[in-house]
Amino acid sequence: MSTIAFLRAINITNHFVKMEELRDVLVAHGFSNVQTYIQSGNVVFDDPTQSYAEAEHLIATQLEDCFGFAVATFLRSAAELVELEQACPFTPSEIDPQAALYVTFVQHEPDAEAQARLAQYQNELDTFRITGRHVWWLRHKQRGESKFSGAKLERAIKQAGTARNITTIRAMIAKYGFTK
């Protein structure tokens, strides 16, 4: 079975990493069948021999040592990714053609206070739903029209996360043939 690492802050601002170098670091630390999907920190590999928490820590530590900046790491199994996509909390009728739907991966489910802080940002442009360790953000119009950002989301829930467009998640599921 496959595991997917979603890496935060790869190939944005001054955090540029060649995917070949990223793969090499993981292979050197015992991960097998390492593949990267697009240039934004999506890594697919065989299930690790250690727990996800240990693997997340190992990957984050090794990437920071190698590249010189912190790389928060969020692991999900292929089955979890399929379940996530199938459990979208928004109905098709809620998602208009100009909308963008993002999933932010976090370490633990935001507590009630964090959810209340995030709800304060909800408006006609931005709608949020939380399902476990995933924060869904439906941006109803073009990016420039919304005043919300990933940084505001992290401050609201008081933990780091990394967001992916649902189209990226669906493309990964299709490309790698992930199933439950």
From TrEMBL:
**SUPFAM superfamilies documented for this protein:** SP0830-like
Q: Name one Pfam family in it.
A: DUF1697
Q: From the record, give the transmembrane residue ranges.
A: none
Query: Which Gene3D superfamilies does the record associate with it?
Result: SP0830-like domains
Listed name of the protein:
DUF1697 domain-containing protein
Please report the organism this UniProt entry assigns to the protein. Herpetosiphon aurantiacus (strain ATCC 23779 / DSM 785 / 114-95)
